[in-house]
């Protein structure tokens, strides 16, 4: 019920973390996008309106952008670009599009409500271990996770302190 209430507070907007693609331009080979769209990079951890996803996946209006993204070996990690790009180009008129540009790097990450994560370059302690610069959540993080407003958490490993995930599951349900 809390998740439903949180999503209702978005008033029909999508919940999408993104940043301008600046330092990631090499991943797109500095290509220009069709439809006068600007590149945005983000994560696949998002909450979208069903109508937005239908248009993104099946619609013809954004077909030229989708076709560019789907070309084999054209863009590195297209999943990190496709949905944020569609969500932050409001002139494409997709349902739930974000009207404001994403926050600057200094303001995103920990403040993104879609996902809690501790990256190695954050100023937060990781009492467990890092795998590819992401803190693997464990028992020491349970009380913190129970106090933050995020709707998901990244990253648990099934074979590393599994009791932490179990405790979160019991707390949530």
TrEMBL record:
Keyword Ligase among record annotations: no
Keyword Transferase listed: yes
Topology in membrane: Single-pass type II membrane protein
Any GO CC annotation of this UniProt entry: membrane
Chief place where the protein resides: membrane
Gene Ontology MF terms: acetylglucosaminyltransferase activity
This protein's UniProt keywords: Glycoprotein, Glycosyltransferase, Membrane, Signal-anchor, Transferase, Transmembrane, Transmembrane helix
Localization: Membrane
Known pathway: Protein modification; protein glycosylation
Domain of life from the UniProt record: Eukaryota
Family statement drawn from the similarity comment of this UniProt entry: Belongs to the glycosyltransferase 14 family.
Protein name according to UniProt: NADH dehydrogenase [ubiquinone] 1 alpha subcomplex subunit 10, mitochondrial
Organism of provenance: Mesocestoides corti (Flatworm)
């Amino acid at each position: 019920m809390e998740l439903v209430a949180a999503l209702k507070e978005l008033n029909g907007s999508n919940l999408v973390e993104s940043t301008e693609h600046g330092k990631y331009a090499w991943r797109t080979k500095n290509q220009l996008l069709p439809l006068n769209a600007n590149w945005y990079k983000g994560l696949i951890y998002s909450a979208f309106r069903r109508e937005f996803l239908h248009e993104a996946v099946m619609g013809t209006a954004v077909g030229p952008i989708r076709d560019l993204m789907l070309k084999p070996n054209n863009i590195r990690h297209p999943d990190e670009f496709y949905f944020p790009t569609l969500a932050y180009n409001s002139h494409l008129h997709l349902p739930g599009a974000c009207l404001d540009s994403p926050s600057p790097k200094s303001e995103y990450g920990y403040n993104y409500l879609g996902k809690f994560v501790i990256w190695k370059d954050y100023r937060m302690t990781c009492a467990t271990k890092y795998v590819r610069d992401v803190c693997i959540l464990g028992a020491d993080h349970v009380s913190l996770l129970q106090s933050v407003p995020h709707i998901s958490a990244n990253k648990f490993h099934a074979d590393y302190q599994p009791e932490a995930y179990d405790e979160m599951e019991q707390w949530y349900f």
